[in-house]
């Protein structure tokens, strides 16, 4: 029954939602993900000067990349290629391109509707913009429950299973003891709260990402003469034009979209939870940054994994095996046995930071549902750690199917909410563009210009008079 429901939701509903609405957001925003692509670097530079107690834009990006760059970039790509052929990679690219627009708007709205808690820290996400933007707390609670089940519980078990299985294959380590060790290390970080999670992400995310890209590029350079033909094969296979993979057209689309969403999470409503905690001058600034994280996740890291697999000579049509084994064996086929070890170590880092991210999404959802109840948070932490250990030693096929279903329901609720709030997102974008067109290098958000929205004055205090004056002047052409 789970398989039938999953095939319908992720094989039909998810494709229409992700590609259809993402494409609509892209066109209506005049390709915001491309227009502001280079501007993202100046946002980074400004965020490094942040001296407040809040997380910077860059730290929020590292935290979101901690979750986006996970098992989906290694195992997920392997599964997509195994079941959908090389053409699945092309549909992962399409999903990412339109997903950048979806991610931009969901993270911009999360920033606009964020709340300042009693401790002075920001909280936000889909549940918050559904409640305060649409006035539907019940739907926000549904979203929070789905996030809690999907990321707080199901995905953590899956991530744990992926890394312990990989370490067992590469080093022969007991899944029981690696599960215990993983849970212990994660517990030390969990109990430090969002700031400790962000500090660990700041350290590990750049290391794991750059190391993985470097080794992948090494493999690609060794066989660079084959890269153009392999890229052509990916495109041909995506449209059923390659005779070897022609029969996989339907699977290529379904697997490309499904695994693409699993890898970059654009439109799922997960990234807005961490995007909202950043200290920025304007909500759109964080939306620009988060759109780039989708690009880095799929166009760079997932493409690296796909090319390693397809160029290795190990992969053949009809390959039977899991995605992790395919990636490990593909790299080992080119560089030797150390490639298998490297994938296991890389996957361990990917999974460790992903679980931290997943945990925070669950905690944020729990706080939305029941408020700041410290006992409930402690119980939640204990359950997550138990599930991490359980996931390390159990077969998770049923859990994977359940997670796919809840992930699709997440996308459904979040994207419908985004569609209903799209005009608000466009207003924020036009305000930002107007200020930049007027020559203001760092646009400032003046909540008084959006008095009709339910915004938190503690999160968006009135800017200083000079900045507010410049902002008002920049907005005049738009208002006329």
From TrEMBL:
The Gene Ontology terms for molecular function here are: amino acid:sodium symporter activity
Entry GO terms, CC: plasma membrane
Subcellular localization, as worded in the UniProt entry: Cell inner membrane; Cell membrane
Q: Where are the transmembrane segments?
A: 12-31, 60-84, 138-158, 170-191, 203-224, 230-254, 294-318, 338-357, 377-393, 399-422
> By what name is this protein known?
Sodium:alanine symporter
* Key words of the record: Cell inner membrane, Cell membrane, Membrane, Symport, Transmembrane, Transmembrane helix, Transport
Could you tell me which residues belong to the region Disordered?
461-480
Membrane topology term reads: Multi-pass membrane protein
Q: Which family does it belong to?
A: Belongs to the alanine or glycine:cation symporter (AGCS) (TC 2.A.25) family.
Taxonomic source organism:
Pseudomonas rhizosphaerae
